[in-house]
Structure formats: structure tokens, C-alpha cells
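This part of the workshop introduces the protein records we will be handling. To make this concrete, we reproduce a full record directly below.
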Amino acid sequence: MESSFVEDLVDSEDKQTINEIRTVSRSLKEGFKKRALQAQVVKSYINRSPYPIIVAGDFNDTPVSYSYRKIRKGLNDAFVKSGYGAGFTYRGNYPPNRIDYLLYGDKLLSTNFSIIRVKYSDHYPIMAWFRRPD
């Protein structure tokens, strides 16, 4: 069994660390499941909307995640279209990453994207400028 193999590799003092890793792992797994369901609900609203679409939010997921890919399908990412650099929006205890997004439909064009480097929270605010296509 994989878990007993890991336990055999660590000292008895590390057992608490193994338990903490398991707790964090379970928590992450539950978060992924919840966000996947939420992404499906959001995508159903997007698909039914007769209006130009802008989806802005803290997804708490990376650009390779199911939630991001599900919601973004058929939409544009303002950072990808008009941002630059690494695009890190999270500045907390975990490695920096891009987990906050501005997505939009084809009835708009993103002309500029900015990450505001202020320390109000563990996320940096993001901002984009849009215009209608000519």
C-alpha cells in the first residue's frame, strides 16, 4: 500500500507531518470537487446569457485546472490577450500563481490588463479595459 510505504520512509517524529499532509490533501480534493460543480453551474448561466459576457473572479484555481478550462471554453482571457509577465495574482503562503481572472466573450475586445501590486489581501486586484470590436 502506498501510504504505508511513505510511512516506512519517515521517522516517527515525522508521523505528525504525514497526518498534516493527509489533512491538507483531503481539503484540496474537496475544494477541487466543489469548484468543479460550481464551474458547471456558472458555465450554464454563461451559455444562456443573451448579453455580452464578462466573468470576473477569484477562481482559487490555476489556468490548467478543470474549473478554469470549463468556464473559459468559448471565452477569452484578458490576461492572455492583453497582459504581460507571469501574471501572478496570489501572494499568500503558497507559491505565487494566477488564480484570479477576467474572462470575456467575442462581443468585446480586451485592450489592456493590469495587476495592481498592493497588499490589501493575499490576492492582488486585477483590472482590464474593454472596447467593442469595430
Notes: The chain has one domain: 2-131.
